[in-house]
Amino acid sequence: MSEMTLVQAVNRGLFEAMKQDPDVLVLGEDVGVDGGVFRATDGLIKEYGAERVIDTPLSETGIIGTAIGMALYGLKPVAEIQFLDFIYPAFDQIVSELAKFRFRSGGQYPCHVVIRAPYGGGIKGGVYHSQSTEAYFCHTAGLKVAIPSTPADAKGLLLTAIHDEDPVMFFEPKRIYRTATGDVPDGDYRVPLGQARTVREGEHLSIFAYGAMVPPASEAASALAKDGISAEVIDLRTLVPLDEAAAVASVEKTGRAVVVHEAARFCGFGAELSAILAERAFYSLKAPILRVTGYDTPFPYALENVYLPNAARIEAAARAVMREG
Amino acid sequence: MAKAAQSAPEVAPGVSHALSNDRLLSMYRVMVLARAIDERCLSLQRQGRIGFYAPASGQEAAQIGCAAALGDEDWIFPAYREIGIALWRKVPFRALMDQFIGNSTDRVKGRQMPNHYSFRDHNFVSPSSPIGTQITQAVGAAMAMQRRHVPQVTATFFGDGATSSNDFHAGMNFAGVYRTPTIFFCQNNQWAISLPRSRQTHSATLAQKAEAYGFSGVVVDGNDVHAVFDAVAAARERALAGEGPTLIEAQVYRFGPHSTSDDPHRYRSDADVAEWKRKDPILRLREELRTSGALTDEAESQLQEAVKREISEAIEAAEGAPALDPLTLFDDTFAQRTPRLEEERAEFQRLLREGVIRP
Q: What pLDDT score was predicted for residue B18?
């Protein structure tokens, strides 16, 4: 067990996977000699060489297309997209190819690629270094989507993703790359995909969050507790497959739900989660479900602090659902 | 009326010494089979017995000349018009017909429209409909071959239209940088649906695009099996020697429509088609085999009969095979069904039982 930051945990996870299996390799822009723009791949090239830590030309469709070819052949590529905002040149490779290979070939060609991408706002990144577009990928059948919020989960989910049999989109909350710190088990540590984590148990309402929204959700819960409001905070950890049972069980207990994400609201992941809760926990609900999200505008630079949900907005939404019913 | 950029290439004089008469005869047989399948399938589509078809008539010498120069262990990253490659690799027509119908014996379980078949046993990777996406994938598989130090190459197939796609340029660039054992086999059939080659790019040839990526590109007469075979054999030899990729532009002509969904009379003249049909690769090889005495009139008519019989029997068998089990829909999205897919499958099963959904 060692204490480290979230980005260090990603790095430890990559080291561990490459040590475990010579078929694991890393590719992307500036991932080798430079160690990645966020240092997530720091030191890998020294340990494993340029054959397994591949600095690529600046082409996302090239990165993902070649990673798919490697995976079809039997390697286990972990591709880095430098910022989630830059993934769109590879969108065709991801949604038309990677997600569909197993299905469209009748199971003949599984295609297991892990795509890592830092996502989200809060780093003064403006329109193109801040977006949270996980919903695009959740909407595509055939992709798994994981988003850690703690160093231990970053390592544990990443190792599980690399050893999974399906494509996994692994989105890293870059805003808390260095502020989220915690103990991380050494060696081969795995956290299963599809299992939510109860960050804090509560009785009166459920707050659902993931990635960089988990810390403000917890902060809001602490503030509410001072007024005797007991909020349960659930870190979803994996959006696909979603731990629907845990979400429904929490709302059956509390009767109220607030769903938090920094992505825009319309057709965001919160829409799906709200629909699931409405379908499956309707008779437990004492108040309408509220969403605390980014706004339905492109991501702003100067106004990012008021665009992004924070503890105060989450707390306000929680108080609003508590007033109902 | 738009005109194709190039007129039919003149017949190249060189005849390869690499191909024996026996081998040429087996290539000829597959070319004849491919053409006959195209003709039958166009009519099956018109009769509503299959939903769609994309013919490859006119491209047989390019495809089979190329396939014959590759090793069985080489990986094919096809587009959706590569019937000659599949047949050369001994995929039985029955297996293709199963796929055209999407029946219970279809290897891809009815997931894709006709022409999008794949056969792992034959290293024939699954194609998709988006244009050019297989090109970067072929380069990635070649990078994996380099990493494993195996004597294999990847060959990827695409048309003139695909040279405008993102993945063509990304793939060519990566292949140049990593010097991958990849053969980029472009069948320039002069038309990307309705757009002639001249409107696709201002480059004099498609092959010259390789130069910008730091490797060689060659133009071959795609109606000449010898020229195609030699070019591919040389490219493969270079790839295996660690000398990197090659782009081969095989100049051919798409005799038929892009697919059963279009009418070529809207965009090209019969005179153009007629000019290229004089260069028909099957007539050309037949003439050569007759002249050399390798093919007699009697053998030719036996071959035509055998091919017809094989096709009819396969169609009958494929049409007689049981329909696809609808529940297979829920297989292969993931390695294991997620809880949500289990629930959807159970709901679907109930709707089937209640007759709300009828297969």
A: 85
Mean pLDDT of B209-238: 98
The answer to whether B167 contacts A61, with C-beta atoms less than 8 Å apart, is yes
> Any chain B CB within 8 A of the CB of A107?
yes
* Judgement on whether residues B196 and B246 belong to the same structural domain of the protein: yes
CATH class of domain segment(s) A197-323: alpha beta
* Per-residue pLDDT at B139 exceeds 80: yes
Question: What residue ranges of chain A have pLDDT lower than 70?
Answer: none
Which residue in A231, A320, A243, A309 sits closest to A277, CA to CA? A243
Give the one of B140, B147, B167 whose C-beta lies nearest to A67's C-beta. B140
Chain B neighbors of A242, CB-CB under 8 A: 340
Same domain, B211 and B232: yes
Q: Does B179 touch chain A (CB under 8 A)?
A: no
Number of domains comprising chain B: 2
Question: How far is the alpha carbon of A120 from chain B, nearest alpha carbon, in Å?
Answer: 27
Nearest beta carbon to residue B130 from set A52, A57, A92: A92
Given the DSSP bridges, would you call strands A144-146 and A231-235 parallel, antiparallel or unpaired? unpaired
> Given an 8 Å threshold on Cβ–Cβ distance, is A73 in contact with B334?
no
CATH fold of the domain at A2-184: Rossmann fold (3.40.50)
Residue contact B338–A194, C-beta within 8 A: yes
The ranges assigned to domains in chain A are: 2-184, 197-323
Could you say which of B171, B177, B338 has the minimum Cβ distance to residue A241? B338
Checking if the pLDDT of B5 tops 60, the result is no
Of all residues in chain B, the percent with pLDDT exceeding 90 is 94
Tokens 């020229």 sit on residue:
B227
Which of B137, B138, B334 has its CB closest to that of A166?
B334
Nearest-by-CA chain A residue for B141:
A69
Tell me phi and psi for residue B75, to 5 degrees. Answer: -95, 135
**pLDDT over threshold 70, residue B16:** no
Q: B-contacting residues of A 163-222, CB under 8 Å?
A: 164-166, 194
Q: Residue with structure tokens 């989220």?
A: A180
Tens digit of pLDDT for each residue in B61-107? 999 999 999 999 999 999 999 999 999 999 999 999 999 999 999 99
Q: Is B181 exposed, middle or buried (0-12, 13-18, 19+ CB in 10 A)?
A: buried
* Catalytic annotation present for A129: yes
B149 CA: distance to closest CA in chain A (Å): 12
Question: For the domain that residue B73 is a member of, what is the CATH number?
Answer: 3.40.50.970
**Burial of B285 (C-beta count, 10 Å sphere; 0-12/13-18/19+):** buried
Contacts of A230 (CB under 8 A, 6+ apart): A202, A203, A204, A224
- Taking a contact as any Cβ pair under 8 Å apart, which residues of chain B between 72 and 101 contact chain A? 75, 77
* Residue B274 and residue B340 share a domain: no
Chain B partners within 8 Å of A77 (Cβ): 140
For B30-69, write each residue's pLDDT tens digit.
999 999 999 999 999 999 999 999 999 999 999 999 999 9
Q: Please state the ipTM of this predicted complex.
A: 0.96
pLDDT of residue B286: 97
B249 in the same domain as B162: yes
Chain A CB contacts of B125 under 8 Å are 72, 105, 109
Same domain, B132 and B245: yes
Sign of CA dihedral A307, A309, A312, A316: positive
Domain shared by B318 and B330, yes or no: no
Q: A159 near A17, Cβ under 8 Å? A: yes
- Residue B313 C-alpha from the chain's centroid: 23
Q: Give the domain extent around B334.
A: 325-359
Sheet containing A76-80: order of strands: A53-55, A24-28, A76-80, A114-119, A168-173, A144-146, A238-240
Q: What is the pLDDT of residue A18?
A: 98
Q: Is B10 part of any domain?
A: no
Searching chain B, which residue's CA lies closest to the CA of residue A49? B147
User: Are residues B296 and B354 located together in one domain of the fold?
Assistant: no
One domain for residues B184 and B331: no
Confidence of residue B17 (pLDDT cuts 50, 70, 90): low
